[in-house]
Amino acid sequence: MLKVHDLAVHFKQKSSFALWQKSSPLRAVDGVSLEIHENETLGLVGESGCGKSTLARAIARLLTPTRGTIHFEGKDISTCPEHALGEVRAQIQMVFQDPSSSLNPRMTIEQIIAEPMVIARWNKKKIAARTAELLDLVGLNHTHLQRYPHEFSGGQKQRIVITRALALHPKLVVCDEPVSALDVSVQAQIINLLKDIQERLGVSYLFVAHDLGVVRQISQRVMVMYLGEIVESALKSDLYALPLHPYSQALLSAIPRPKPGLVRQRIILRGELPSASNPPSGCRFHQRCPSARAECAEQKPLLREVAEGHHVACHFVQ
Ligand SMILES: Nc1ncnc2c1ncn2[C@@H]1O[C@H](COP(=O)(O)OP(=O)(O)OP(=O)(O)O)[C@@H](O)[C@H]1O
Ligand SMILES: [Mg+2]
């Protein structure tokens, strides 16, 4: 359904020294390829600042890519001008981290849910019917419709945001850290809601999170991102059972184990995420990698398939 090839998003930066000096762009996303199939959830993980949100926004075409293509149902949407994006906007919806800033405090819940349908010029009868259908789907009460966002808890607000995102029957919902601002019990409710919606409607998700435990609960496949690039991608079961890239191993070693007594050696990474405007040569992870060797600083490892459906970008994974 969605096929992204060699996608890059570079941000221009102003030089802090002299106006005439050109500074190199910030390469937030740098050559990402991925596919999302119908009725599938692709998880995207990586530490803060690695480019997850930028990639998500580019796929939803809230940003224009610097390079690469995005094919959605066979059509290249990467170069579509803004005015031609109408249909894409309906088909690819986004859910953000903070539900409070996604909801207009002066609108009632009914107005908020109806907004995309009003913009799509649906008639009142059709909007009312769809609103009733949506409320049943997400488990919101009809009596909630006349209330305002501030009268709801964080979890309920995110439920409302999800309801609005589903109004126009989207095929793909891009969720950028949708549960990161919620407490753990509410997180589970929202994840179950998203799974239930997928079962009933067959929508696909790109699910972005920095919490690997959350991603595990919802995804079928998972991709690990580091400094604008994908370093590993695999079926969830393969990645969590046997992460192959040293960066994925470090990320996974930080998850608390459910069984007491089972000790996993925690891998502490050296240093911080390097600057995306001047990424390290060769493998971008080599300065922090516990198993780096001399050639890692010179040669860039390609993302290659090492087992069926399991791709890794590391020189030393066989
Ligand atoms: N509009 C923008 N203009 C300039 N730089 C940007 C812009 N948006 C993001 N960046 C930069 O791009 C890089 C990636 O940011 P991004 O928000 O995609 O990271 P992230 O992986 O989503 O992080 P987090 O987990 O904290 O949300 C960062 O260095 C950020 O400062
Ligand atoms: Mg982000």
Question: How is this structure best described in words?
Answer:
This protein is of the alpha/beta class. The protein contains 10 helices and 12 strands. It has helices at residues 52-59, 86-91, 99-102, 109-119, 124-138, 154-166, 184-201, 212-218, 236-241, 246-253, and strands at residues 2-11, 26-36, 41-45, 67-72, 75-76, 92-95, 172-176, 204-208, 221-226, 229-235, 304-307, 310-312. An 8-stranded mixed beta sheet has the order 6-7-8-3-9-10-12-11, with helices on both faces. A 4-stranded antiparallel beta sheet has the order 2-1-4-5, covered by helices on one side. Helix 4 (109-119) crosses helix 5 (124-138), helix 4 (109-119) runs parallel beside helix 6 and helix 6 runs parallel beside helix 7 (184-201). The longest helix has 18 residues, at 184-201. Bound molecules: adenosine-5'-triphosphate and magnesium ion. Residues 52-53, 176-177 line the site of magnesium ion (MG).
Question: What's the helix count?
Answer: 10
Q: Whole-Å distance between the termini?
A: 31 Å
**Over the alpha carbons, how many angstroms does the gyration radius reach?**
21 Å
Low-confidence stretches: none
- Estimated helix fraction: 25-40%
Compute the number of strand runs.
12
Strand order of the largest sheet: 6-7-8-3-9-10-12-11
SS class:
alpha/beta
Biggest pleated sheet? 8 strands, mixed
- Order of helical and strand elements: EEEHEEHEHHHHEHEHEEHHEE
The share of residues in extended strands comes to: 15-25%
